[in-house]
């Protein structure tokens, strides 16, 4: 599909979310392409909401049936997911822990007509660093198991736990002690800052607290940049649009001041600009100009450059850490991840020959990674 055709299709999807009439022919794409695009941008539930009840739409019946099928399945899954989130939060609260929900889950339960319309693959929590061990033990105690991943204080400042319920639904919790694995962004918002403005999420029970609107908007703007190479997924842009819609003029001024103080003004301007372009979010030229004004003095602005590769991520990550010791620790974590992660990557167990082969695995991983950097695949 050409870039022009892709742009027409995405604009048609955005127009539907703006509650405008969009004909099927106006999308200019084949049914398979439309479904693939909706899936890639996590829009199947939202688009089904927009066209599912319409009697005068010219969208093909088979497409409408497929969107309905997916939407109904996600609605059923969300009932189980919501129940599990409440149970996890209650278990943590019983041990005196107060996690803060961030990103998709709290938005789904506070900004969307139905939480199942805001598709996502996990639930993100922020906890104090000193509570990490207790959170891990509490979730393992109620049947969760930890995913094998790179460990370390710098390379991966989070861990994931998962559990499959009796209905076959996989529940995944992504537990952060910093909001980002990138050192430049890791302390943009601390747990303590988030807690000061945290708001209840009534639909998720008495123990559910989420980032306040100003903090949630800042996270929504920086998340695609710091972790996803500036990907313009419509669902993320729509999140920004919905968050902006609930802010007062004073909240907007606070947001601008916070983004500039945290030195992510240019990134925030990008997020708000996309929301205005796609969904006509109520953002003034003055607000965008105020955010972008300090871009030259913001190290984080380098993340807006297109075509960034692995080395471009590593360099600012290293420079953002204080002291030679921390930088050496990050390099060690990148080059020599823990042995369990290595064995898992190569489909081995930790017994017998696998232990002997570990040095060889590290050498192979380093050579393969270096080659991918050389050919531009990483």
Describe the protein in words.
- The protein has 378 residues and is α+β, with helices and mostly antiparallel strands.
- The protein folds into 4 domains: 3-72, no CATH class; 79-211, Roll (Nuclear Transport Factor 2, Chain: A), CATH 3.10.450; 212-304; 336-378.
- The chain contains 17 helices and 7 strands.
- It has helices spanning 3-17, 24-27, 31-40, 44-51, 61-94, 104-108, 132-141, 191-196, 213-227, 234-245, 249-261, 265-279, 285-292, 310-319, 323-335, 339-345, 353-374; strands at 100-102, 123-126, 145-146, 158-164, 170-176, 199-200, 209-210.
- The strands form 2 sheets. Strands 1-2-5-4-3 form a 5-stranded mixed beta sheet.
- A hairpin with an 8-residue loop joins strand 6 (199-200) and strand 7.
- Helix 4 (44-51) packs across helix 5, helix 9 (213-227) packs antiparallel against helix 10 (234-245) and helix 9 packs across helix 11.
- The protein is globular and about 65 Å long.
- The two termini are 24 Å apart.
Number of structurally distinct domains:
4
Mean pLDDT comes to 86
What would the principal axes of the Cα set say about the shape?
globular
Helix segment tally: 17
Name the CATH architecture of the largest domain: Roll
Contiguous low-pLDDT stretches (5 residues minimum) are: none
CATH uppermost class of the largest domain: Alpha Beta
Q: The CATH topology of the largest domain, please?
A: Nuclear Transport Factor 2, Chain: A
């Amino acid at each position: 599909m050409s870039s022009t055709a892709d742009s027409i299709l995405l604009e048609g999807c955005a127009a539907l979310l703006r509650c405008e009439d969009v004909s099927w022919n106006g999308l200019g794409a084949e049914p398979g392409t439309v479904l693939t695009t909706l899936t890639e941008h996590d829009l199947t539930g939202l688009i089904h909401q927009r066209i599912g009840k319409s009697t005068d739409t010219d969208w093909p019946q088979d497409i409408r049936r497929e969107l309905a099928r997916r939407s109904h399945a996600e609605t059923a899954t969300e009932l189980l997911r919501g129940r599990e989130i409440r149970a996890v939060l209650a278990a943590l609260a019983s041990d005196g822990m107060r996690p803060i929900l961030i990103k998709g889950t709290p938005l789904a339960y506070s900004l969307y007509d139905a939480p199942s319309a805001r598709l996502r693959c996990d639930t993100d929590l922020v906890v104090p660093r000193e509570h990490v061990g207790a959170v891990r033990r509490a979730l393992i105690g109620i049947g969760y198991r930890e995913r094998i991943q790179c460990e370390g204080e710098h390379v991966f400042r989070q861990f994931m736990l998962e559990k499959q319920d009796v209905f076959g639904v996989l529940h995944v919790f992504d537990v952060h002690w910093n909001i980002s694995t990138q050192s430049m962004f890791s302390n943009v918002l601390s747990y303590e800052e988030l807690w000061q403005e945290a708001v209840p999420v009534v639909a998720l029970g008495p123990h559910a607290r989420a980032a306040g609107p100003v903090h949630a908007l800042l996270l929504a703007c920086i998340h695609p940049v710091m972790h996803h190479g500036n990907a313009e997924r419509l669902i993320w842009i729509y999140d920004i649009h919905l968050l902006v819609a609930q802010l007062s003029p004073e909240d907007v001024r606070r947001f601008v001041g916070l983004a500039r103080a945290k030195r992510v003004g240019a990134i925030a301007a990008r997020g708000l600009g996309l929301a205005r372009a796609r969904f006509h979010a109520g953002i003034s030229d003055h607000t965008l100009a105020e955010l972008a004004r300090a871009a030259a003095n913001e190290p984080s602005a380098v993340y807006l450059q297109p075509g960034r590769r692995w080395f471009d991520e590593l360099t600012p990550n290293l420079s953002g850490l204080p002291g030679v010791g921390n930088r050496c620790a990050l390099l060690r974590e990148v080059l020599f991840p823990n042995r369990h992660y290595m064995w898992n990557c190569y489909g081995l167990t930790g017994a017998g020959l696998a232990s002997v082969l570990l040095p060889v695995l590290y050498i192979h991983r380093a050579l393969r990674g270096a080659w991918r950097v050389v050919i531009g695949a990483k």
